[in-house]
Amino acid sequence: MSVDGWNTVLVLGGIRSGKSEFAESLVTDAPVVRYLATAPEGDPEDTEWATRLAAHRARRPGSWTTEETTEDPRRLADVLSSAEPNETLLVDDLGGWVTVLLDPDHQPADDVATIAELAEAIRACAARVVLVSPEVGLSLVPTTPLGRAFTDALGAANRAVADACDTVALVVAGQPVWLKSAAGVASPAVAANVTEPAAPASASAQVVAASLADAEPTPEVQLPEVLTHAPPVVPAQESGNNWAAPTMALPMVATGLVIQPGMELPMPDEYAGPQAVDRLATLDVPGAGLGVLDRVVGFAAATQGTATPQAWGSVRVLLLHGDHAGGASAGTVAGESARRAAQARAGRGALARLAAESGASLQVVDTPAAAPMEDQPALSLDQVESALRYGWRLAEQAADAGVQLLVLGACGAGTEAAAAAVLAATAGAEPPAVLGRVITGSGEIDDAAWMIRCAAVRDALHRTRRSSRGAKDILAELGGGDVAVASGVLLGATARRVPVLLDGPVGLAAGMVSRDLAGQARHWCLLADHGGHPAVRLAADVLGLTPLLDLRMDLGEGANALVALPLLRSVLALAAALPVHPSLGDDEEQSPSADEPAYLDESDFAEPEPAGPGPASTGADEQPASGWRAG
Questions:
Q1: Is the per-residue pLDDT at 415 higher than 70?
Q2: Quick check: helix, strand or coil at residue 625?
Q3: Model pTM score
Q4: Residue 123 burial class via C-beta count within 10 angstroms: exposed 0-12, middle 13-18, buried 19 and up
Q5: Which residues neighbour 310 within 8 Å (Cβ) at sequence distance 6 or greater?
Q6: Which of 12, 192, 212, 412 has the most C-beta neighbours closer than 10 Å?
Q7: Helix, strand, or coil here: 484?
Q8: Catalytic residue among 225, 557, 588, 609
Q9: How far is residue 6's CA from residue 247's CA, in Å, rounded to a whole number?
Q10: Rounded CA gap, 345 and 520, in Å?
């Protein structure tokens, strides 16, 4: 799990609840972690306490650095205040910190003031911070004055820190429960997602689709209408496309679907993928086999739920069109993205031609324009909510139409800078490292425009340095309409078990955001080619997506995926059709079935007989009455 969705997290839990292990799992994606140890060493004769401390030290990776704050309780606030934005801090735990705070050796000390200083330091901290603390509020009131003083002080510290943190989790028996999200405490209607049992698949399909059809975008977003309908109720044994059917009851309120952090969406079949790859070793394949493309077979098998996956038949390309104002679009020609979108709608241009060659449908989707992120939020939170639901509905519409694979692309001014800003906020990337060179229409490199884009991203990150790092907040402050709609598409496709072929910075930025809304989404994504984009390379590495190809094409988002699509289909078709190697099958060769073409033999290449009696024809212009025999 990742802490990228928030800037500060408090993890509460009882003794031996697994709170420390859970907190450590939140920062596993960080390249370097500063571990702030607050617990005193204790009595040298207390071997059990020493064993606990040794177990904590043994779990820390070698790349982590450890700092002790036991000498002065106030030092913890100083460390948090001086932390840099690219750092990740893990504080374990506040119980030890309160113990030192109440130690007579550190008196006189105003524990109330020190706790208030710590809470203020957390609010002002620019780094990512995860704090661990024991939850003592559920236990009995201690019978000793010292025990009561400790529980009172720790309870006050937990309340102050929880109020200062973006989000709070409670770990019970190793199971985390989120008490506070970045957007505030969840309403009872949202909380019903955890407590209510899932409805049957067919009923869920009707509820989700009907509710989505009623949820109209807000007028200010001005999103185009997408017609969805409730699929017919079909018994599971009669359905021919169960792999794309909804599998759970999603949280609903009066306005429609609730998209929130921690959503539980389906995962691909964990057994079908490895079984399909193992099956490839038994096929009658010459040479070294399929090479790296065996990952395509494993991915298709997992997402289709079978060890013998079929090539994707119905494919839909979603081309998201939305511009970003301000410095993000430096170096682009005004109106160029609108021209590209209109061209695609008319069935012209590179993307439309590639879609036609691949037999894929192309749908151009207009998304809300984003304001200059260096000066103000790119979107309002209401626009983000509407865009997420709209993207989900696009995926629902595709699944209801029988689409088996979605291809996600984008065309808009400033999309690369917006993706770089999202990566900087979620993965701690430096903008210059993830912003590609700006190439003009004449093929020249525009370094001045590149510097303006870097400055826009830098200023946007500075403006939002104290803002929440929740997924929706990142979309509102930095991502914009295209990234928000793309995130909704990934979540909706995951809910309907439809795989997505990513291509370009917008799709990968959406993958980073959707990971913090539903971690299952990235497992339904496939990356055919990184396209030479540094942002795509980094996001793919964080998401665990390995590009299959390295074509170095630059025809716009979606083009690389469509170029690779026939190859991926061919691999799947080959893996499904090839027989088992004779050494692993029957000794007797089986004759080809009526449905399979026979191989040519020597007689097929013999000189054809003339059409009628008489001397054999030797003229070059004469055609035989019968052509080559197919066997």
A1: yes
A2: coil
A3: 0.57
A4: middle
A5: 300, 304, 572, 573, 576
A6: 412
A7: helix
A8: 557
A9: 29
A10: 32
Q: What confidence tens digit (pLDDT) does each residue in 389-412 have?
A: 999 999 999 999 999 999 999 988
3-state secondary structure at position 500: strand
Vertex 310 angle, CA 309 and 312, to 5°: 120
What's the length of the chain? 631
Tokens of 20: 């420390």
237-269: b or e for each residue (b if 16 or more CB lie within 10 Å)?
eebeeebbbbbbbbbbeeebbbbbbbbebbebb
Q: Quick: pLDDT tens for 28-66.
A: 877 778 988 887 666 666 676 667 667 766 677 777 888
Ordered strands of the 167-172 beta sheet: 65-68, 34-37, 88-92, 128-134, 8-13, 167-172, 175-180
Beta carbons within 8 Å of 392's beta carbon, 6+ residues apart? 212, 257, 259, 488, 489, 491, 492, 495
- Report whether 102 contacts 149 (CB < 8 A): yes
H or E segment and range at residue 274 = helix 272-280
| CA–CA distance, 325 with 491 (Å, rounded to integer) | 26
- Average pLDDT value for residue range 315-328: 93
Closest alpha carbon to 341 in 369, 315, 322, 361: 322
| Structural tokens at position 164 | 């200062």
Give the residues across from 316 on adjacent strands.
Answer: 361, 406
Residues 529 and 560 sit within 8 Å (Cβ to Cβ): yes
557 is catalytic: yes
Instruction: Name residue 90's amino acid.
Output: L
